[in-house]
DNA sequence: CGGTAAGCTGACGGCATGACAGGACAAGTA
DNA sequence: TACTTGTCCTGTCATGCCGTCAGCTTACCG
């Protein structure tokens, strides 16, 4: 199903080849977090990995191709974000806890994958379907779960009927993603990390349930 | 005060020079909306403007420099976004209207300056102070106004004291910006443009006042 | 009409890209 | 051990963009 790892010219990669390939990916990942995406050059990645540009081109069609590879990897891990929402109760104290844990988990994931998520975001915004798909894969998991939560509350008449669950869930997730990728920005207008989280959780809880949380 | 427009090598630009310069900026702007930022080359911009690469380098140190110029221009226009919030009442029907108009104005501005805002966002996220500053210039106006609104409501005991006005305002603005730049994304999970706006307005209202709007 | 500064470009060294052919290496076979 | 096979890596090359400079053309002014 997964298929073996293959080089650009169709050979199957052996143990040594896969190691080289992985090393190139790792080095690319590091470069992305230390210098602007626009300035990441194949030759630098290759040098950093102690190999030559030609080797890079054996495993990846171009820089973008390699970035997609890393992103795909991350997306798999990101699928686990679903668990932050699935099967949670949004009533009473449990609701507040759910909101807090969602915010926590989300911010954490984003901070860990900071650099690559930035590039994925850009690619998606520019209309590249491949990046777009990956971004969806990560956000969809959470968004769909949240959408379901809102729908449930609507069914129980706890949320107004004219609320569009998908729109609200999507917007909240977008907010989390945006805040996560500009966390430094908040510090400069005097909001500290620790203060940010409860306020985000508040917004999430308000958005989902329409009510202030009981802590 | 403003200083004349100058070329890289220090000459003051005359009428003809300024026209060329502007044409280069315009063409760059077009290129940014039609192809990925990473692939925008000086030579293409120059060709599109019917001039040579050397001319480009007379007016701008590099592509980034020119992008900053465009962004600066946009930031000036963006300062007008303050009016969407300043001096608004957030009580009763007026509150709902304020939320709706804020969302409307914001989304509109973002759609108009789509391409350049993407690049600014990326630059800021990557830690470039110059892009960061521009992003702040645009968002600060709105965020500060919103922060003040929340503070006022807090003073009147209409909002809980443990809410951090700046954190809430900043998060809401980040949400608006994020949703605006991924508007297409929402369509794919079945949320239409027209549906999106009222739901965003709802979230904004909830966030600022802590209460459901009275429409 | 001549001087001066603005405006533009051809051309060039330098570097990244991406392709290829061939050498180095590990593992299996006789 | 010698030979074979297939994987893995690199030297090298044509191509194309970058960023700069000297020098030519154009516009303005006394």
From TrEMBL, chains A, B:
Locate the HTH tetR-type domain: which residues? 18-78
Q: Which organism is it from?
A: Streptomyces orinoci
Residue ranges of the annotated DNA-binding region, renumbered to this chain: 41-60
Instruction: Check the UniProt entry and state the signal peptide residues, or none.
Output: none
Q: What keywords is this UniProt entry annotated with?
A: DNA-binding, Transcription, Transcription regulation
Query: What parts of the sequence cross the membrane?
Result: none
Q: What is this protein called?
A: TetR family transcriptional regulator
Q: Which domain of life is it from?
A: Bacteria
């Amino acid at each position: 199903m997964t298929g073996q790892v293959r080089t650009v010219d169709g050979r199957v990669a052996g143990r040594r080849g896969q190691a080289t390939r992985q090393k190139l990916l790792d080095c690319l990942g590091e470069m992305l977090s230390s210098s602007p995406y626009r300035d990441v050059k194949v030759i630098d990645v290759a040098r950093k990995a102690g190999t030559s540009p030609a080797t890079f081109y054996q495993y990846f069609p171009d820089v973008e191709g390699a970035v997609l590879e890393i992103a795909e990897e991350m997306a798999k891990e990101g699928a686990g974000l679903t668990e932050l929402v699935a099967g949670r109760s949004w009533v009473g104290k449990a609701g507040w806890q759910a909101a807090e844990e969602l915010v926590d988990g989300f911010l954490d994931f984003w901070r860990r994958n900071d650099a690559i998520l930035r590039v994925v975001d850009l690619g998606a915004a520019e209309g590249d379907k491949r990046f777009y798909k990956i971004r969806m894969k990560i956000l969809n998991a959470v968004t769909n779960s949240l959408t379901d939560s809102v729908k449930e509350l609507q069914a129980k008449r706890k949320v107004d009927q004219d609320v569009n669950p998908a729109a609200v869930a999507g917007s909240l997730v977008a907010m989390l993603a945006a805040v996560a990728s500009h966390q430094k920005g908040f510090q400069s207008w005097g909001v500290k990390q620790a203060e940010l989280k409860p306020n985000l959780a508040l917004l999430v809880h308000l958005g989902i349930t329409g009510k202030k949380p009981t802590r």
